[in-house]
Design a protein that fits this description.
Ribosomal Protein S4 Delta 41, Chain A, domain 1, Structural Genomics Hypothetical 15.5 Kd Protein In mrcA-pckA Intergenic Region, Chain A, 210 residues, 2 domains, 10 helices
Length: 210
Amino acid sequence: MARYTDSVCKLCRREGMKLFLKGDRCHSPKCAIEKRNQPPGIHGGRRMRRKVSDFGRQLREKQKVRRIYGVYERQFRGYFRQAVKVKGLTGSTLLSLLERRLDNVVFRLGFANSRSQARQLVTHGHFLVNGRKVDIVSYSVRPGDVIQVSDRSRSLTYFKDVTEYVGQHVPPKWLTIDAAAMSGRVADLPAREDIDIPINEQLIVEYYSR
C-alpha cells in the first residue's frame, strides 16, 4: 500500500470518530469531527444513511485500527499472523503487539502529542532503548526495557519544552515515567484493559478469518 499523503482529518471523518492523528488540534474546536462529522466527498451524507453489511463493519474496524497506529496493510496482516500463533485471545494479542511498537510507546509516554510525531522523533534517532539508539518505529519493546531521550537530543528546544508536560502526563499502567531523567520503562506487557481505544477487535479477527 502506498503512503497516505492526503489530509488525515479525512480519515477521522471516514471512520466517524476522532483517531487523534493531529495531536492538540484533535482536542480543539478546529477538529474536523467537531465541525463536520460525516464521511468526506460529495456523497458523504448519503453513505452515513446506508445500511452497513457485516463485511463492511469488519473492514471499517480493521481500517480504523490501522489508521490509529499508522501501519500499512501488509504490516497489519503480519501483526495478525503473529497474534494467531500466540496462545490466548487473538484480538487482544493483536492490540498488545501494536501497543508495543516503539513509536506508540513514545507517544504513550508523552514525548509526542501524536503517533505520527512520535514516528518522526524515533526515525530521527532521538531515543535510546536500553542505552542503544533505535530508529526503527516498529521496534517491539519488552518488559524491563528503558526508553529515554538521547543526551544529544535533550538540549533541543523541543525536548526542553516537553519536559514539563511529561512530568504531568499519566501513562497507561504498563509504563512508568521518570520525567527528570526524560525516560520511561516498560513495566509489563499491555493488557486489553490498559488500551483505551474504542474498538471491537473481534470484528478484525472475523475479517481475517473469512
